[in-house]
Write a structure and sequence with these properties.
It is built from 4 helices and 12 strands, in the order ββββααβββββββαβα. The protein has helices at about 35-45, 55-60, 145-160, 175-190; strands spanning about 10, 15, 20-25, 25-30, 65-70, 70-75, 80-90, 90-100, 105-110, 115-125, 130-140, 165-170. The strands form 3 sheets. Strands 7-8-9-12-10-11 form a 6-stranded mixed β-sheet, with helices on one face. It comes from Anisodus acutangulus.
Length: about 190
């Protein structure tokens, strides 16, 4: 007999908590297996599927929703992303664009590392004209061109109808206006929003 969701039962090695969850949009109890001892090895052996594939590996590819203290949280793996490499003013520039549930992450690098990291978001308000907030999280704080680049990208995200914020990483050798325009152009042409 399966206990109700979110309940616990007494087992041979102590209480077994059965958290509530949703797997492929069906409510299920997710058993907690002991990780050590003969009991755990036997149960893990029972969960083996065909050709030695464990159910744990199969479940990890599905959309899983756990009921936590803050409500339902969905996690889709892998994260949707685009990678591109281009030449901007003689510098090889690698760009990665990732779409998370609440943010877009854009990494543009000519130096092979993260560089300055900025956060940009649309301010919520009653004004007809949208306002945007851009702040430097890590790195050079005295580079207005990097802030302008983040602002251009968050405006494009907002105009496309998305309310997600942006985390932008710029590791650039050349921080000139043509370089930043090339990055903004490449990101907006290959956007995930």
């Amino acid at each position: 007999m399966v206990p109700p969701q979110g309940s616990s039962t007494e087992g041979e090695s102590g209480p077994k908590i059965r958290p509530k969850g949703v797997v492929d949009e069906q409510h299920v109890n997710i058993p907690v297996l002991p990780l050590v001892g003969p009991e755990g090895r036997r149960r893990l052996g029972q969960l083996k599927g065909e050709k030695g594939t464990s159910r744990r590996a199969l479940v990890s590819r599905k959309k899983i929703v756990f009921h936590g203290g803050r409500g339902e949280e969905a996690m889709d793996i892998p994260v949707q992303q685009k990678k591109l490499s281009l030449d901007i003013k003689g510098n090889k520039t690698d760009i990665v664009i990732c779409a998370y549930d609440d943010h877009f992450l854009v990494i543009a690098t000519q130096i092979g590392s993260m560089g300055t990291i900025l956060h940009a978001r649309k301010e919520e308000g009653v004004s007809i004209h949208p306002t945007f907030s851009v702040s430097v999280l890590l790195g050079k704080r005295d580079e207005p061109m990097l802030v302008a680049c983040a602002r251009q990208i968050i405006e494009h995200i907002s105009n496309a109808g998305s309310s997600r914020s942006l985390v932008l990483s710029l590791g650039l050798r050349d921080q000139s206006l043509p370089t930043l325009k090339g990055i903004v152009s490449a990101v907006t042409e290959n956007c995930l929003w």
